[in-house]
Amino acid sequence: MQLLLQDVTEAVVREVFEETGVRANFDCVLLMRQAHGFAFGKSDMFILCALKPEPGQSEVSAQAKSVLGQGSCLMLKPEPGQSEVSALESEIEAVQWMPLEEFQNQGFFSGVPLYEKLQGRCVSYADGVYKGLAANKLHASLPTSMRKRDDLLIFGE
Predict the structure, then answer these.
(1) pLDDT tens track of the chain, all 157 residues?
(2) Angle at CA 99, nearest 5°, toward 103 and 10?
(3) Residue 49 to residue 70: CA distance in whole angstroms
(4) Distance CA 70, CA 93 (A)
(5) N or C: which end of the chain has fewer CB within 10 A?
(6) Which residue, 137, 113, 141, 145, is CA-closest to 6?
(7) Residues 15, 18, 84, 116: which is the catalytic one?
(8) Is 116 labeled as catalytic in the residue annotation?
(9) What is the tens place of the pLDDT at every residue in 83-114?
(10) Of 147, 143, 140, whose CA–CA distance to 7 is shortest?
(11) What sign results for the dihedral spanned by CA atoms 13, 10, 132, 52?
(12) Rounded CA gap, 34 and 117, in Å?
C-alpha cells in the first residue's frame, strides 16, 4: 500500500522491508499494468519494481516485488549460504527461497499472458538483458511559483 505523498519508489522499499525484513533499494520499474472493472468496479494499477540489496546487506538480492491478487509475492534470489527470510503473516501467506526456474514453472502462471510477460521481464532483468525504467525525483516548481514541488519522473533510458 502506498502512503499519502509517498512515491512508488519509496513505497516498494518500505513494503518489502515491513513484509519480509529485507532492506533493499529501488533499482527500476520492470512493468506497469492498468486494469478497469477490478475489485468493487474500480480501476487498478499494478507496478512491478526491481530492488537491489542495501550496501552491507550481501545476504539478500531482491529482484522483484509484485502484488498478485489479494496476497503479495516476493521473488528473491539468495546469496550462497543464505537460507532465511521472514514474512509479515498478516499480509503474506508464505515466503520461501526458490530458483527462478521453479518460480516460473508454477501452474498458477501457465497460460496467463499477464503473468507470462511479468515473468519474462523478471528473467530478462535477472539476466542483465532488460534494464527497466529509471525513476528520478526532479524539482518541478515554476520560477514564479510560491509552491515548492518535486515530481517523480519514470522513463526509459
Answers:
(1) 666 668 989 999 988 888 777 788 899 999 998 889 888 888 988 899 998 877 755 443 333 333 222 233 444 444 444 445 555 555 566 666 667 778 778 777 788 888 888 888 988 988 899 999 999 988 877 777 777 888 888 998 7
(2) 75
(3) 18
(4) 10
(5) C
(6) 137
(7) 18
(8) no
(9) 455 555 555 666 666 677 787 787 777 888 88
(10) 140
(11) negative
(12) 14
Q: Which three cell numbers stand for residue 104?
A: 516460473
Q: Can you give 132-144 as a three-state secondary structure string?
A: CEEEEEEECCCCC
Could you tell me if 130 and 121 are in contact, meaning their C-beta atoms sit under 8 angstroms apart? yes
Give the residue carrying C-alpha cell 527497466: 132
Show Cβ contacts of residue 117 under 8 Å, excluding neighbours closer than 6 positions.
31
